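Data availability (excerpt). The following record was deposited with the supplementary files.
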Amino acid sequence: MEINEIKAVIEGVLFATGDAVSVDKLMEVAECDKDSILAAAEKLASDYKKKDRGIELTRVEDKLQLCTKTELYPYLQKIAKNKREYQLTDVQLETLSIVAYKQPVTKLQVENIRGVNSDHAVNRLVEYGLIKELGRLDAPGRPLLFGTTDDFLRAFGVDSLDDLPEIAPEHVEEFREEAEEEAEERLSVKI
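Predicted structure:
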């Protein structure tokens, strides 16, 4: 199959699904190898970079997706008036950070790190589509495991979890000390 035919297959599949599709799935559908898919995807992405195009091809981990160019979002907001924008609170950002760096993680593990109940924050993050249930932990009570979604990666502009910034060891120690101080303060308030 020629590169233009592969481009057409990729474009058609991504447009029809409206979601990210793995390179492996595209290889299966187009009946070609990974290098051909990636070469066609690169050409397609280059075609979309022109100013007169409203969409772009994005890569999230090993998946491809068609998305509206970010500079066109104001126009989308005019047409999608029902679309809710959300602003993450400090609590939600803290919870999201824990899930992103510790995943798969249970709600109890998040609460142990934060030192407070995290039900509301976890539920909101699931509602916003930034985290999702990954299954259940093989332990008593079979608690739910949570991890980040592709929407999380897109929202924070990273291609994969490997691209998340590393936490410097000195900051880890500072965070641990702050958490211990907060825990002591809460304990003294309760007594």
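Summary of structural features: The longest strand covers residues 55-60.
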